[in-house]
Design brief:
Order of helices and strands: EHHEEEHEHEE
Number of helices: 4
Helix content: 25-40%
CATH superfamily: Gcn5-related N-acetyltransferase (GNAT)
Strand content: 25-35%
Largest sheet: 7 strands, mixed
Distance between the termini: 25 Å
Structural class: alpha+beta
Radius of gyration: 16 Å
Number of domains: 1
CATH class: Alpha Beta
Number of strands: 7
Shape: globular
CATH topology: Aminopeptidase
């Protein structure tokens, strides 16, 4: 069973460990990322996820096995929810783990959503288009911003089964 489990500050070290894998995978799309002198990638600042304020960090788990993570920011005052970072370990790619986890996240936070992918991350673009198309019954829009990022937008309130 695929679950989203809220990350607690006590789990920060585990989260930092899996983020190293995420950054490593991401270097395929951003060649400017490089290792620090200690042989690790620069750690993410996770402080905002521990303070509340609409920021959430989740582990993606299959039963008890760690399979990835999701960071999101809740929308407020009419702004949409945003997935800030999303990662599924390569061994789970193509098995529906990311699709189920992301759709659970959409259901946990009803309302407007925006999902961004950088210009040359074609695997992520394909994943999000397919996942959002399935979740929304193809009632989403897609556009590109000034940074050439692909952006999918939808509102759970307007979905056919709501």
């Amino acid at each position: 069973m695929i679950n989203l489990v809220k990350v607690n500050p006590d789990d920060e070290e585990v989260l930092h460990n899996i983020i190293q894998l995420y950054i490593y995978e991401f270097t395929r799309f951003n060649k400017q990322i490089s290792l620090e002198a200690d042989g690790k990638y620069k750690p993410f600042d996770l402080e905002k996820y521990w303070k509340g304020g609409g920021y959430h960090a989740f582990f993606i788990k299959i039963n008890e096995e760690l399979a990835g993570f999701a960071f999101m920011e809740e929308g407020h005052k009419g702004s949409p929810h945003v997935i800030e970072e999303f990662f599924v370990l390569r061994k789970f790619n193509g098995k529906g783990v990311g699709t189920i986890a992301s759709q659970k996240l959409f259901s946990m936070f009803p309302g407007k959503w925006q999902i961004f992918q950088i210009e040359n991350n074609y695997p992520a673009q394909a994943f999000w288009r397919k996942t959002i198309k399935e979740y929304t019954s193809n009632t989403f829009t897609e556009r590109y911003d000034e940074f050439r990022r692909s952006i999918q937008e939808f509102d759970t309130a307007t979905l056919p089964n709501n």
